[in-house]
Each structure stands twice: as structure tokens, then as C-alpha cells.
């Protein structure tokens, strides 16, 4: 796959915008200015960083959870330190930018962020297995979505097979699991061999001229660097033409240069609403929306919560409270809490033991999650002696809605609905029995075919997998 350059992408964006302007009778030119977001961040005098790993995998065997992104983080951080490139202080593993956005108001790393958008893909045919790990990255001052560098670091492993050795599931596991860490090590070595990983790059902000003399005058003013004056001129013109998308786009850019992020977001949303549709709309900045809209949303959140203290501390004491139960089972919610407790301990959290938490709640008159509406998170935190609370709803045997709540403020830090917690009857047990019979058959055939010991295939409990997916996005300390 050919890597794309940032300049090429930006050029294509500008061409699309210019095409939009031409089709809409708004022919003109564009220009860019650079904005240094680092001026809004706490200065860091070392190469310490917080890793945001956006992890996507396509491995063909989702129920087995073949990949281990935690191993990737460990190998990646150690390789960075070994090369003297920097020091990973903390990290989090996310499935999407939406999960990242939920942390912006509540967690401030205190160091710059190295965002790595990764994808791990496993492809196989009758002759070849191929595992491909690719990433785009951006070094940025805050927990916000930025357009990653359009240059990827990649690592690939392939293995050719004889025609009679057609892949089955055990072949795939036998091949992939031993090479997984080697893949991560090879990738990390390639990644940190590059220069400029930790350069504090500015972002580009662009304007369009528009078609009226007043808009062209404002454009010239913006080019001169006088953003307040340009903003004023565009506002005056907006009073005469409230449906001109170019005006809203330019006002958004001016607000961005002035650090007025709420206004920049509002104007960009108005630009998205007023731009033409159809053929003209194809040239109206659609590619930009995937970049600028999330970016402005992130910066608006950063600005809004800039003066607040961290609500989430990775070292905070956690309590996993009884669930509000909407099922007929009394056993499932408790079993689910036990899986969550085990996962919290695996991640190194200081967690109040479930029996201790339940006894303290009982002494204060609470035996069920449905009763918590009668009190406050602050009171619950005092009852159980915890800083953060994991609260949940057992919505069905197959689905649970989980929330991480800051006890003192009552703010929800993170929430996620996970499938798998509680589905021991219809999911885990059924999956395990059926698949184990199938794999036992495969093992037996392989023993007859060749004198080698078959791989030990692990059958994870789907409740444990759901617990992993809930805990992965939490920020945590990195320990080498």
C-alpha cells in the first residue's frame, strides 16, 4: 500500500473546496495559515508521552480474541525507551475516537499525546497466511482527534503452505500466536527508526476568498494575520448573506485562530448545514468534515474543561457495585461482577473486594443496584471507601450497560454497553461445547496426519472478553 503524504492530502482538500466554490458561483482562491496548538498546552521539557492506541483488528476469528494489544503496548513502550526516543508514561487502548472523546473532560495526561491509529489484518488462502500491522500517527498536545500523519509504519509476516496443508483454524492459531510478539517487535523497531516522530507540528487553517468585494477584502485581511479584523468583516457580510457556506467556513477558521473553539465548532456545523448538496455538494468539503469536525469537537471539549482537575486517576480506588438487575437471574449479575473484579486486578487497579463492598452497603441499607437512586455517588463512595465506582445494569442475559462514575462529583467518566457479560447459557456454554467438539475432531485428524502435538487452543469465557473490552480504554500507567 502506497503511503500518502500530508501535503498531498491537504492539496486534494483545497482542490475540492475550490471546485465547490466554482460550481457554486463562489470562484476564488484559498490560502493557509499555521496555528500552533502547543501554545495552549503545559510545556513538557522531555519526550515523555501518553500513548493513545486506536486498535482495529480483522483476524477472522473474533470469538477467540487472537490478538493481544496489551503486548503491543508493552513491546512498543520498551522499544521506545531502548532507543532513547522517549518514555511512555501512560496509555489507553481504544476501539474508536468516540471512546477517546469521553475521556477528554475527565483525564489530562500532563504530557503530550502520541496517537497511533493501528489496524491488524490477517488474511489467508490455500497457500499463504499474511498478517499485516499498519499505523498512522500524530504527536499532539491533547487528548483530541487529529488527522494522523499520512505516512504509515507497517510490518508484515507471511508463510507459504504446501497444497496438502490447507489451513484450518488450528493451523491459523499455531502459526499466528508464536509470531504475534515478533510482529509487534518488528513493527516497533521500524516505527522508532523514523525521524521526526516527536516534532511539534502546527496545524493548517485555510480560508476561501468568496465572490463579493467585501469577502475578498476580508480574505486579504486574514492573509495579513489580522484574524480579529477578518472575523469582524466576515460577520458584517454574514448580516447580508446568512446562507453563504463560505462565510461560515471562514468564520470557523477565524475563530479557530483566535482560540474561540466553541464558536469555531458552531460555525463549522453551520457550514456543513448550508453547503449545497448533489453534484455541487461532492465538492463542498466533505473530505474535510472527517477531519475538522471531530478536531473542533475535541478542542471545544478541551477548552471547556481546561481548568478542571482530573476526575480520573489511574491509581484511584475502585469499587464494583451491585448491578440493577432486569433479568430473572440472581446469579448472573454477581458472576459478572466477579469477572470485572478479576479483570480490574489484572490491570493493576486497587479494587475494593466485592464481599467487603457488599457488606458496607448492606450496613447502610443497600442490597441491590436498583436502590442507588435513593442516594448519591458521593455517599456510595464514602460507604465503600472508593474514589471511582463501576455501576451497571444487567439489561438482559446477553447485554450489560456499564458506567464508570467519579464518586465525589457524580460525573460519569466512561460508559459502554457490552455484549457477552451474562451470556453463559446462550453464548459461552453453547460456544464452548460445540467448538470444543469440532476442535477435538481437528486435533484427532492432525494426530493421524502428522506426529506433532496440536496447539493448545484457549476457549475464553465471553464474560471475560466483555470485561476486557470495558477496561481496555481506561487510562493506565505504563510499567516497563
Structural notes for this entry:
This protein has 480 residues and is an alpha/beta fold. The protein folds into three domains: 134 residues, Serine Threonine Protein Phosphatase 5, Tetratricopeptide repeat (Alpha Horseshoe); 145 residues, Double Stranded RNA Binding Domain (2-Layer Sandwich); 121 residues, 3-Layer(aba) Sandwich (Rossmann fold). Helices cover 43% and strands 20% of the residues. The chain has 15 helices and 14 strands. The strands form three sheets. A six-stranded mixed sheet has the order 6-5-4-2-3-14, with helices on both faces. Strands 8, 9, 10, 11, 12 and 13 form a six-stranded mixed sheet that branches. Strand 2, helix 2 and strand 3 form a beta-alpha-beta unit. Helix 11 crosses helix 15. 37% of the residues are buried.
| Proportion of residues in helical segments | 40-55%
**Biggest sheet character:** 6 strands, mixed
In round numbers, the mean pLDDT is 81
Q: What is the N-to-C succession of helices and strands?
A: HEEHEHEEEHEHHHHHHEEHEHHEEEHHE
Structural class: alpha/beta
Per the principal axes of the C-alpha atoms, what is the gross shape? globular
CATH class of the largest domain: Alpha Beta
Instruction: Give the DSSP E fraction (strand runs of 2 or more residues).
Output: 15-25%
CATH architecture group name of the largest domain: 2-Layer Sandwich
Radius of gyration: 26 Å
Major beta sheet, strand line-up: 6-5-4-2-3-14
What is the number of beta strands? Answer: 14
Give me the number of helical elements: 15
Distance between the termini: 33 Å
Amino acid at each position: 500500500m502506497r503511503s500518502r503524504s500530508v501535503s498531498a492530502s491537504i492539496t486534494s482538500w483545497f482542490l475540492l473546496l475550490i471546485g465547490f466554490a466554482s460550481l457554486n458561483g463562489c470562484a476564488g482562491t484559498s490560502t493557509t495559515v499555521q496555528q500552533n496548538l502547543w501554545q495552549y498546552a503545559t510545556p513538557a521539557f522531555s519526550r515523555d508521552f501518553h500513548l493513545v492506541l486506536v486498535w482495529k483488528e480483522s483476524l477472522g476469528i473474533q470469538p477467540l480474541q487472537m490478538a493481544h494489544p496489551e503486548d503491543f503496548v508493552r513491546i512498543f513502550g520498551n522499544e521506545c525507551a531502548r532507543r532513547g526516543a522517549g518514555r511512555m508514561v501512560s496509555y489507553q487502548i481504544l476501539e474508536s475516537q468516540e471512546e477517546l472523546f469521553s475521556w477528554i473532560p475527565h483525564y489530562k495526561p500532563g504530557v503530550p499525546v502520541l496517537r497511533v491509529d493501528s489496524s491488524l489484518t490477517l488474511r489467508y488462502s490455500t497457500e499463504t497466511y499474511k498478517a499485516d500491522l499498519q499505523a498512522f500517527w500524530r504527536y499532539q498536545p491533547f487528548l483530541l482527534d487529529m488527522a494522523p500523519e499520512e505516512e504509515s509504519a507497517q510490518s508484515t509476516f507471511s508463510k507459504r503452505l504446501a497444497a496438502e496443508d490447507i489451513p484450518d483454524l488450528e493451523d491459523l492459531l499455531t502459526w499466528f500466536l508464536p509470531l504475534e510478539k515478533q510482529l509487534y517487535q518488528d513493527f516497533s523497531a521500524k516505527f522508532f527508526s523514523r525521524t521526526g516522530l516527536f516534532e511539534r507540528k502546527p496545524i493548517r487553517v485555510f480560508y476561501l476568498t468568496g465572490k463579493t468585494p467585501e469577502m475578498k477584502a476580508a480574505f486579504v485581511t486574514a492573509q495579513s494575520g489580522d484574524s480579529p479584523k477578518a472575523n469582524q468583516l466576515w460577520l458584517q457580510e454574514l448580516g447580508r448573506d446568512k446562507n453563504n457556506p463560505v462565510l461560515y467556513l471562514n468564520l470557523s477558521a477565524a475563530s479557530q485562530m483566535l482560540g474561540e473553539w466553541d464558536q469555531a465548532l458552531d460555525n463549522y456545523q453551520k457550514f456543513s448545514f448550508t453547503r449545497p448538496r448533489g453534484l455541487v455538494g461532492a465538492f463542498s468539503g466533505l473530505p474535510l468534515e472527517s477531519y475538522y469536525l471531530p478536531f473542533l469537537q475535541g478542542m471545544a471539549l478541551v477548552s471547556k474543561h481546561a481548568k478542571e482537575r482530573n476526575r480520573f486517576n489511574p491509581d484511584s480506588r475502585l469499587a464494583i457495585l451491585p448491578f440493577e438487575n432486569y433479568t430473572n437471574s440472581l446469579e448472573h449479575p454477581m458472576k459478572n461482577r466477579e469477572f470485572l473484579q478479576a479483570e480490574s486486578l489484572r490491570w493493576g487497579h486497587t479494587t475494593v473486594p466485592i464481599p467487603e463492598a457488599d457488606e458496607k452497603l448492606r450496613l447502610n441499607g443497600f442490597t441491590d443496584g436498583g436502590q442507588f437512586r435513593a442516594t448519591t455517588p458521593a455517599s456510595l463512595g464514602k460507604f465503600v471507601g472508593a474514589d471511582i465506582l463501576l455501576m451497571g445494569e444487567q439489561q438482559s442475559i446477553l447485554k450489560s450497560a456499564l458506567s464508570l462514575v467519579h464518586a465525589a462529583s457524580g460525573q460519569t467518566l466512561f460508559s459502554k454497553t457490552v455484549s457477552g457479560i451474562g451470556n453463559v447459557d446462550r453464548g459461552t456454554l453453547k460456544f464452548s461445547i460445540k467448538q470444543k467438539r469440532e476442535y477435538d475432531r481437528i486435533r484427532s485428524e492432525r494426530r493421524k496426519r502428522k506426529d506433532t502435538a496440536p496447539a493448545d487452543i484457549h476457549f475464553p469465557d465471553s464474560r471475560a472478553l466483555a470485561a476486557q473490552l470495558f477496561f481496555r480504554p481506561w487510562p493506565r500507567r505504563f510499567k516497563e
